[in-house]
């Protein structure tokens, strides 16, 4: 029987296959109507004049397919897939973000144009169309440059902004899968596009990004679903920008491309072979489970502290009045460094305990202790 990590790895790879297949389908559709060169113009620039009968594809459909096809062609040059551990995804979703410097997101160039996929996609409220529930499958990052907003690598020094594509799968109202479109083996996906400025003098918040999305749609204020999706995307982006992020890189390209062995106990045809992407990175596979265990311990400690208060046990020790034991939540912090503090990095501050030693049998402690949860 495969281990939990192996099963999560397979699940993440299958999500990546689904997303990449949808992007590649857009590329094939353009080629089938004679517009196969169009995505290259979204990357390299230039002028392309062509006419497509409206009964084939509308102008809006051509633009949408062109964007997805160009994203796929650029991503396919590096093929970076970052698999997010579900425990890490759940932890990041609780972290608040303050004002962010645009310059921070130039750090996304460490792994050019990654697709971050969720091994266990969380259910969110869709921000396009009529809304409703959906699974958050992946977040794709790319660079944009110039007045024409041409696509480029996230490590390109010409990059003016980071383009973010949030990819979701709509679900039925009861949370189940929707019927497949006629003639298609894959469900339809929803693509929400947003941008992050990277100029050194720009500061913004998640609310600012959500408002830009709302105004493009003709509204003054963003919906709750738009705010949630933007916050999720920025939480992932900020953590990706950290030089200390828990990201496991394959030892070599040969290891990343090694075929997956079928377990000895697996019967032929019973276990689907999975195609691991060329650059399959694991994010939060060590830190995520550890943070989950810390959170569970904090909840248990909070229950014990509440019981102590109900029993009237004091919190006064030799150091004066003490706070009851609790856990201060983790958060993301921007750290400035370098000459003149002109360079930025992001740092994940792990949850840490306050007055943990008050949980002894007497409820007393000689001195307060604050130490990181490890």
From TrEMBL:
This is Uncharacterized protein. Residues 251-274 are annotated as: Disordered. It comes from the Bacteria. It holds the Pfam family AcrVA2-like. Residues 261-274 have a biased composition (Basic residues). InterPro entries: AcrVA2-like (IPR058915).
């Amino acid at each position: 029987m495969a281990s939990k990590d192996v099963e999560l790895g397979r699940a993440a790879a299958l999500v990546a296959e689904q997303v990449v297949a949808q992007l590649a389908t857009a590329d094939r559709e353009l080629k089938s109507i004679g517009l196969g060169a169009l995505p290259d113009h979204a990357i390299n620039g230039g002028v392309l004049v062509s006419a497509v009968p409206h009964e084939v594809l509308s102008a809006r459909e051509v633009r949408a397919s062109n964007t997805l096809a160009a994203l796929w062609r650029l991503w396919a040059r590096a093929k970076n897939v970052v698999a997010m551990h579900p425990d890490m995804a759940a932890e990041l979703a609780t972290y608040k973000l303050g004002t962010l410097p645009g310059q921070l997101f130039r750090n996304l160039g460490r792994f050019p144009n990654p697709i971050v996929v969720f091994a266990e996609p969380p259910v969110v409220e869709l921000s396009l169309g009529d809304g409703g529930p959906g699974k958050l499958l992946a977040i794709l990052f790319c660079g944009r440059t110039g007045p024409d907003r041409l696509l480029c690598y996230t490590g390109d020094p010409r990059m003016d902004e980071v383009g973010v594509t949030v990819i979701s799968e709509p679900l039925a109202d009861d949370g189940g899968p929707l019927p497949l479109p006629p003639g298609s083996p894959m469900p339809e996906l929803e693509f929400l596009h947003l941008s992050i400025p990277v100029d050194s003098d720009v500061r913004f918040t998640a609310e600012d990004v959500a408002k830009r999305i709302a105004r493009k749609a003709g509204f003054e204020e963003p919906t709750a679903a738009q705010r949630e999706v933007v916050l999720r995307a920025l939480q992932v982006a900020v953590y990706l920008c950290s030089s200390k992020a828990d990201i496991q890189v394959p030892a070599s390209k040969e290891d990343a491309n090694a075929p997956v062995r079928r377990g000895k106990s697996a019967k032929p045809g019973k276990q689907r072979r999975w195609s691991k992407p060329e650059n399959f990175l694991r994010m939060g596979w060590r830190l995520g489970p550890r943070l989950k265990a810390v959170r569970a311990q904090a909840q248990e400690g909070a229950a014990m502290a509440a019981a102590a208060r109900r029993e009237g046990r004091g919190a006064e020790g030799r150091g004066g009045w003490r706070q009851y034991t609790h856990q201060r939540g983790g958060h993301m912090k921007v750290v400035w460094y370098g000459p003149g503090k002109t360079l930025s990095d992001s740092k994940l501050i792990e949850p840490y305990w306050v007055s943990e030693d008050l949980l002894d049998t007497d409820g007393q402690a000689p001195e307060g202790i604050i130490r990181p949860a490890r």
